[in-house]
Amino acid sequence: MTAATVLWIVAGVIAVVAVLLILTRLIAGPTLIDRLIASDVMLTTLILVIGAEMVISGHTLTIPLMVVLAATGVLGSTAVARFVSRAGADAPAEPGGDHDQH
Fold first, then answer.
1. Phi then psi for 9, rounded to 5 degrees?
2. Could you identify which of 3, 38, 88, 101 might form a hypothetical disulfide with 26, taking C-beta atoms 3.0 to 4.6 angstroms apart as the criterion?
3. What predicted TM-score, i.e. pTM, was given to this entire model?
4. In the chain, what percentage of residues exceed pLDDT 90?
């Protein structure tokens, strides 16, 4: 078994475990922010897997794809964060309930 094969196996196992954990948060995330963070982590994991493939194979052909994916992640996160901040969807509840009742 060559060193490249061992690297492929280790990288594959780590990627699969990471994706399974991310999918559980993406599906079960109680808030929109949890799902947004999970999708960002999923995109980052995809970029890391592409980078690992690039290092193990010894080429640089997928760098433009990695840049496009990173830009997509930044723009998507910014758009959703602006939407959430305007909608106030995940505003924390005030401790102690309503302050109007004295």
1. -65, -45
2. 38
3. 0.74
4. 49
Average pLDDT over residues 68-88: 87
Q: Are 61 and 48 in contact (CB under 8 A)?
A: no
Residue 93's region, left for phi above 0, alpha for psi from -120 to 50, else beta, is: beta
Q: Using 50, 70 and 90 to split pLDDT, how confident is the model at 43?
A: very high
Q: Are 41 and 73 in contact (CB under 8 A)?
A: no
Position 51 scores a pLDDT of: 93
* 3-state SS assignment for residue 28: helix
DSSP strands (E only) in 1-102: none
Closest C-alpha among 86, 79, 2 to residue 39: 79
Interatomic CA distance for residues 82 and 72, integer angstroms: 15
Given a contact cutoff of 8 angstroms between Cβ atoms, the answer to whether 55 and 100 are in contact is no
